[in-house]
Amino acid sequence: MAAFWSGGRLGPPDVPVVPPAVHPIAHGISRGLILAAVQTEPANAPDKYRRFCELRSEVANGTNRWKELPPKK
């Protein structure tokens, strides 16, 4: 849902564009992280959620990046 709320048209095509608000995006992302943390081993959810937040910061500041794949031959 957060991806849906992140941009584009939220209404039908035959009405004026309704831009998304910012707060549903942040709420959707945080709720998704909470659900991911409790989906398995709910007793460890606080530690997993904390790690998700650390990863978010690492990605945002560029210290944790996807590894580039080697070119296809």
Count of individual helical segments: 3
Distance between the termini: 37 Å
Mass-distribution shape: extended
Radius of gyration: 17 Å
Q: Class by helix and strand content? A: mainly alpha
How do the helices and strands follow one another from N- to C-terminus? HHH
DSSP strand count: 0
Average of pLDDT = 85
- Report the sheet with the most strands, covering strand number, pairing sense and barrel closure: none
Strand residue percentage: under 5%
Helix content: 40-55%
pLDDT < 50 stretches = none
State the domain count: 1
Task: Give a short summary of the structure.
By secondary structure, the protein is mainly α.
Question: Keywords, please?
Answer:
extended, single chain, about 70 residues
Explained architecture:
The model has no long low-confidence stretch (mean pLDDT 85). It contains 3 helices and no strands. It has 73 residues and is an all-alpha fold. The chain has one domain (2-61).
